[in-house]
Amino acid sequence: MLRVRGIHDELTPVIFAETLANVFSELRYRGNDKIDFDSYFLNALDESAKAILAKTKAGEHSASDEPVQVAAKCVSILDPKAQQLLYAKVAGQYSYERIRDEFNFSNSVIAQYEVTKVMDQLEGIVKLRMNFSSIQHG
């Protein structure tokens, strides 16, 4: 999705991390557990890409801040295969069939299960980190 929007590959992890931090902060603030995280996150990622492109065209540069650093650390905690699954699904928008083929899963249901497991794991890590960060600075 980011590549389709014209975002360079080297910016993808930063945009991904920033959006992830913002989404978790917003969801924590709202306290709504009944949101489809995947759809909400992908929509937020799309909006972030549009905003970055608009800033880039206007000659502005975004500086990284604490939420970006927290989210980047959360992604880095995941094992390399989990990171690759996450980037393939979210940044690359791979179908579960393509993930099945790329990661040698036996079928698409297993691929979906593995992606969901990584997303759940990341969600838990981000929640812990964001809470820990707010306690330290609060």
Description:
- There is one protein chain.
- With 138 residues, the chain is mainly alpha-helical.
- The protein contains 6 helices and no strands.
- Helix 1 packs across helix 6 (108-137).
- It is globular.
- The model is unreliable at 61-65 and 133-138 (pLDDT under 50).
Give a short overview.
This protein has 138 residues and is mostly helical.
Task: Reconstruct the topology from this structure.
Blueprint: H1 12-30, H2 37-57, H3 66-77, H4 80-91, H5 96-103, H6 108-137
Strand content: under 5%
Based on CA inertia axes, which overall geometry fits?
globular
Q: How many strands, what sense, and barrel or not for the largest sheet?
A: none
**Helix and strand pattern:** HHHHHH
Measured on Cα atoms, how large is the radius of gyration? 15 Å
Whole-number mean pLDDT: 75
N/C terminus separation? 35 Å
Low-confidence stretches: 61-65, 133-138
DSSP summary: helix tally: 6
Q: Work out the helicity level.
A: over 70%
Q: Could you say which structural class the secondary elements and strand pairing correspond to?
A: mainly alpha
What is the count of β-strands? Answer: 0
